[in-house]
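Re: your question about Alkylhydroperoxidase like protein, AhpD family

S., sorry for the slow reply, the queue was backed up all week. Below is exactly what I fed in.
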Amino acid sequence: MEKWKEGMTLARISYSKSGDTPFQQLLGHNEDIRAQWVELEEAFYRSGRLSQELKEQVRRTLAFGNGCKYCQAKGKPSISHEDSRISLAVAFADLFLNHRDSINQNTFNVLRSEFSEPEIAELCSFVCFTTASQTFGAVMDLQP
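Result:
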């Protein structure tokens, strides 16, 4: 991927020289944060118990709820899911976006119907990390 040139102002601040994507170049003003952020993102995608398809549908759902145009450009979430695990994970992401204060023990009891506790921990951490990334993109007005 071609790097954005330093000083470009397609977002609210200029892009740094550090990073492979526009998102990383905004974080790249603080190299240690950029490096650790990218490392954590890569950990979510290279490992874990949840399928890549599940994570992608959750990411897409969150992108539209969090208002990150950069993330929305990768596509809308599917409307229906044959896989009950994906359906439940997307429903959890939607609940997180729109009614976070209603997440309670019953929510976790429902998640346990399809997911192990390590998978629930992964899902929750993925939702929180992705929301942080997408909120950063939205605040910085990062465009596709």
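The longest helix spans residues 117-139. The mean pLDDT is 93.

Happy to talk it through on Thursday.
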